[in-house]
Amino acid sequence: MAATHAVPTVGVEEEFLLTDPDTGAPTPHNVRVADAAKAAGLDLQLELTSCQVETSTGVHSSIADLLDELRTSRRTVADCAADNDARLLAVAVPPTVPEGFPVTDTPRYQRIAHTFGLLAHEQGLCGCHVHVGVPDRESAILVGNHVRPWLPLLLALTANSAIYRGSETGYASWRSILWRRWPSAGPPPFFASVDDYESIVAMMRASGSILDNKMVYWDVRPSESFPTVEIRVSDVAATTEEAALLAALIRGLVATGLRALRSRESAPPVPAEVLRAAYWNAAHSGLDGAGLDPVAGRLTPHRDLLTRLVEYIGPALRESEDHAFVTETLAVVLARGNGARRQLRALRARGEIADVVAEVGRATLEGCP
Q1: Contact 364/88 with Cβ under 8 angstroms?
Q2: Which end of the chain has fewer CB atoms within 10 angstroms, the N or the C?
Q3: What confidence tens digit (pLDDT) does each residue in 5-58 have?
């Protein structure tokens, strides 16, 4: 996935919840669904809890091709789930009351569960991770400094976890609030160099707050497996179009950041406390409210911040021929609402959680073949 051309390549990982077709409660069938998907030619990753699976796309230069693969893979996994007494939902937390989150039976996941206790057993959290090709590990680390100020806005855009355990949470992204309980999760620090990054990770390993480098859960991190930078701030997107929109925006941000690195432009050194406050605003109000602009330090409607983002990465979007797709898809999302708004609308209509599950199910496969 290395960036060998001016336009970086991109790939997407999506985490999904497996639920009971009748009750909507999480169901521990990830091994069965993964086996069925493998027989259908699709490799799934098992997640920490056995009610989750993860898909990974190939490497793409075209967002249109990426969207086609996202649609096909969602449909394939949904069919495999249906054949194994489960329903696939693109939702970031379980809307219904779960009976529990059994940990997947692999040595690494069992070790995590033993070390982190109840934190590991209260997961069921589903995100979307976007990988963008970069020249080297140093670029992957330093470009994160340029992406950092925009992370809360990406979270607000994709918020898809307003309902949890049968109730409104008061947040558009409850997953973000729960996820940041992990000691290595959330906004990444501002790194001065590769050595700076490596020394902090080594300290975390020595302290026991992470067991290995894969447990570096910061929302921007260099991939341990690919020549990419991975941005993982977002809830799993409600629809494939929203996932592709997120990928296009993130590729534009990374391309703009790489250009800034080449020209030795400094990234804004947003303090950690300011970024955490902006995260809270984004998780709380979602797309429809005001967010804290981490650089200006003032509240600004998320819609205005999105306009500013598209202007900021405009040259990169035009270079990758993504500008029209981004502006058109963004207009649709703003008009119709993201996953959080759709969930709340479904619940408030009749007060029935079944309506939320049905709405999430429709969005999951919207546009899929």
Answers
A1: yes
A2: C
A3: 579 999 999 999 999 998 899 999 999 999 999 999 999 998 878 899 999 999
Take residue 335 and report the two structure tokens written for it: 């008009």
Please report how the helices 240-262 and 63-82 are oriented relative to each other, as an axis angle in degrees rounded to 10. Answer: 140
**What residue type is 156 in one-letter code?**
A
- What percentage of the chain carries pLDDT values higher than 70? 97
Measured distance between the N- and C-terminal CA atoms of the chain, rounded to whole angstroms: 27
Residue 320 CA to its chain's centroid (Å): 22
Considering all CA atoms of the chain, what is the largest pairwise distance in Å, rounded to the nearest integer? 56
Please give the single-letter amino acid code of residue 249.
L
pLDDT computed for residue 256 by the predictor: 98
Let me know: does 129 contact 222? Beta carbons within 8 Å: no
Cβ contacts of residue 331 below 8 Å, gap of 6+?
none
CA dihedral 285, 289, 294, 298 (to 10 degrees): -130
Q: How far apart are CA 128 and CA 142, in angstroms?
A: 22
pLDDT at 206: 96
pLDDT at residue 123, rounded to an integer: 66
Residue 109 has pLDDT above 90, yes or no: no
- Three-class HEC string of the chain: CCCCCCCCCEEEEEEEEEECCCCCCECCCHHHHHHHHHHCCCCCEECCECCEEEEECCCECCHHHHHHHHHHHHHHHHHHHHCCCCEEECCCCCCCCCCCCCECCCHHHHHHHHHHCHHHHCCCCCEEEEEEECCCHHHHHHHHHHHHHHHHHHHHHHCCECEECCEECCCCEHHHHHHCCCCCCECCCCCCCHHHHHHHHHHHHHHCCCCCHHHCCECEEECCCCCEEEEEEEECCCCHHHHHHHHHHHHHHHHHHHHHHHCCCCCCCCCHHHHHHHHHHHHHHHHHCEEEECCCCEEEEHHHHHHHHHHHCHHHHHHCCCHHHHHHHHHHHHHHCCHHHHHHHHHHHHCCHHHHHHHHHHHHCCCCC
Q: Is the pLDDT of residue 2 over 50?
A: no
Predicted TM-score (pTM) of the model is 0.94
Q: How many CB atoms sit inside 10 A of residue 97's CB?
A: 14
Mean residue pLDDT of the chain comes to: 93
